[in-house]
Each structure stands twice: as C-alpha cells, then as structure tokens.
Amino acid sequence: MPRFIIEDDFWSLFPHAKIGIVICQGIDNSIRDVEIYEKLLKEAEKDAHKFLSLEEFSSNPVISVWREAFQKFKTKKGARCSIEALLKRVKNGNPIGTINPLVDMYNSISLRYGLPCGGEDIDTFVGDIRLTQANGNEPFLPLGQDENAPPYEGEIVYKDDDGAICRCWNWREAQRTMLTENTKNAFLCMELIDESRSDEFHMALKELSDLVPHHLGGMVKREVLDISQKEMTIFE
C-alpha cells in the first residue's frame, strides 16, 4: 500500500499550503480524439488571460506568489513554477500543444484556474512518495535529457525510494515517472499556497477529478493534504 507523505521539513517552510491529489486507477490514456484536447487547451488559454491583467508579467499575483515561494528554498537558477511557464507561453502567443490526454487535461485545468498541476505514473513508483526537502544526492533524470541532474540539498522535491521525481517543487519532471499513453494508474497533484484562493482550488480539483473518468474511464479518488493531514494511502 504505497503512501504519499508530506514531510515536516516542507511544512516548516509552507505551513498554509494545500496539496490536492487525484488518484486515477484503470484508465485508458491512449491518444485518440486529439481534437477534443486541442479544444480544451485552446479554451483554457483564452481563460488564462484573466491572470495576466498587469503589464509586468512577474507582478501578476498567480506568478508573484510562486516567485516568493521559490525564494524560500534553494533552486536551480532560472527555475520557475509550472504555472508561470504555461502563462508565459500564453502571453507570448505560443500555443500549448497536446501531449497525451492526462497531461492535456491537467494543463487545461492549470491554465483555467492559474494553479500548478502535475502528474506521474504510479506503476513506476518505488516505495512511498514524499514531498520534502532533498538531501542533495537523489538521482534525477530530467524529462528529455540523458544526464543525471540531482537536486540541491534543501530543494523542495517530490521523490520516492529511487530518487527525485519532480525538482524545485513543480518545475521539472523526471523521465522515469512521466505520464505516457500507456499509463493505467496516475497520481495527479495540484498545489495551493495563496490561502485566499481556496475555493477556486477545490473547484479546480473537483473539475480535474470529473474530467478524467469522463474521458478515460477508470476510477478516481481525490484528497487534499494540509498541515493537519500530512499523508494518504495511494492505493488501498
């Protein structure tokens, strides 16, 4: 029974954070009906312009709140929250292309709600998953690269017993655990650090958990972890 555990060294930095989890079991993530996901993303990109009302990109609240958060731990130079990377593409008129249904769905929710989302293939996990500060020697092979790039000591990471699976909290995914069209069981996460947006966060999480079975079948469960509930069982 693998678990997802958020360690106290994370809570010492971000005591008011909420981490939303959607566990997907027995889904069919094969690539088909691409036009459905192209439409989802296109509509989400239009919605995302509401988060870019200020001329100076980094001053927009959904970006500045994460820039401040990333200053609380050691990060790789230039590392930015995943939602900033998506919104930069929207601002520059660079469309978000389809990848596979699960990734397209969480990217569309991320854009619509201005919240970082990510996902991993549960069947690649080794032991429990932890959100914690890195010790600095966790193996990490970034998506699309072929050289080990371990996190810094003290960097916020998701990791399992085999190494880091996402660096700088939500900046860069690992190749080992990435979602593919063969993924059957998925761990999707959504992160909140701006307490004033709790209602939107819960709405976004519910929408994501409804989208998955509608398009891909299978079963889902969702949970929200915070400082009063620091862990959950991934599979019963």
TrEMBL record:
Residues 64-217 form the B3/B4 tRNA-binding domain. Pfam families: B3_4. This is B3/B4 tRNA-binding domain-containing protein. It comes from Brevibacillus porteri. InterPro entries: B3/B4_tRNA-bd, Phe-tRNA_synthase-like_B3/B4. It comes from the Bacteria. SUPFAM superfamilies: PheT/TilS domain.
